[in-house]
Amino acid sequence: MGEHGNGGPNSGAVIKAGDGRSSGYAIDNPGLPPHRPRLTDADEKAAKRAERQVSALFLISIIGTVMFFIGYFAVGVTDGDLQMLRLQNTLLGIGVAFAMLGIGLGVVQWARALMPDHEVIEDRKPLRKEAERAEAAQTVNEIVDETQIKRRPLLRNTLIGAALLAPLPAVVVFRDLDRSEDFGVERMRHSLWEEGVRLVRDPTGTPIRASDLTVGSAVHVVPETLREVSGHGDRLAEKAKAVVLLIRMNPEDFQDVTPGREDWKYEGIIACSKVCTHVGCPVALYERHTHHLLCPCHQSTFDAAEEFKVIFGPAGRPLPQLPITVDDEGFLIARSDFTEPVGPTYWERG
């Protein structure tokens, strides 16, 4: 009884607002706090200074894009010239960073210092078909007016320049991934591996004897013939297809062998492509006790003891296995090329 009489939760009492009307809430809506004008709102000199700051950031973006193109087109990288390669990578990295950072910080500063900062509450209005066009045009005009882009040509012109140039590095990089017209599964079906090609360490090019590997070791190798490929870009493309992970296990740890693969390994030494069959990331994490290989991108996991079959993750098929043996000097060599295309499964889709 006392609870009902004192406006408890079960009393059903209606709370009165400050003006005497029923609101249903303990206090009235306080509304928005009073707007405090910024320095740039009251001082045109401060606004001009902010405009120059934003334009300077957009210019930094433009300079970054130009730096990227200088590194990409003007810096020539020859075989073995690590100094020029480092210079090119530095220009590419810093150029892209400045291009993206400049335009991003410029837009943030533009919104913070020059665009209107007052809060607006607008009730949803019912749409009237006959007024939709005029209302949409009015909305666009209001947005353009608020950006002040019409009356600040320096800001407008630098933004246009930065916005036009900033996406170009990405376009160039993606265009340069492969310039051939026959890109597809057939390009990935064949690599530099063939019968008799030695497995060598990357990047030293040192041949590997079976006796060099201990149980549990995993070695990153490439075909010895890679050094014969001319052209930096062509060499990288061939290396990407032919890169292999060489593992030595106890022979008794292997599971059932697929018929026809009985001689694909040598005294517990087995080799597979490092290119993940999900989206092509490099598989390089080997756990010797479980014989599992992990792709760091999306956690696809392969079992080396079971011919690199997928045991977890989104990969659609096992890692291609490279048949290996030894030559007369005891060096590890390939028996043949991969018997299936390396890389992501989606490349096989018609």
UniProtKB/TrEMBL annotation:
Pfam families: QcrA_N, Rieske. Keywords: 2Fe-2S, Cell membrane, Disulfide bond, Electron transport, Iron, Iron-sulfur, Membrane, Metal-binding, Oxidoreductase, Respiratory chain, Transmembrane, Transmembrane helix, Transport. Residues 241-333 form the Rieske domain. It is found in: Cell membrane. One of its GO terms (cellular component) is plasma membrane. One of its GO terms (molecular function) is monooxygenase activity. It is a multi-pass membrane protein. PROSITE patterns: RIESKE (PS51296). The keyword Transmembrane helix applies. The keyword RNA-binding does not apply. InterPro entries: QcrA_N, Rieske_2Fe-2S, Rieske_2Fe-2S_sf, Rieske_Fe-S_prot. Residues 26-46 are annotated as: Disordered. Its main location: membrane. The chain crosses the membrane at residues 54-75, 87-108, 154-174. Belongs to the Rieske iron-sulfur protein family. Iron-sulfur subunit of the cytochrome bc1 complex, an essential component of the respiratory electron transport chain required for ATP synthesis. The bc1 complex catalyzes the oxidation of menaquinol and the reduction of cytochrome c in the respiratory chain. The bc1 complex operates through a Q-cycle mechanism that couples electron transfer to generation of the proton gradient that drives ATP synthesis. This is Cytochrome bc1 complex Rieske iron-sulfur subunit.
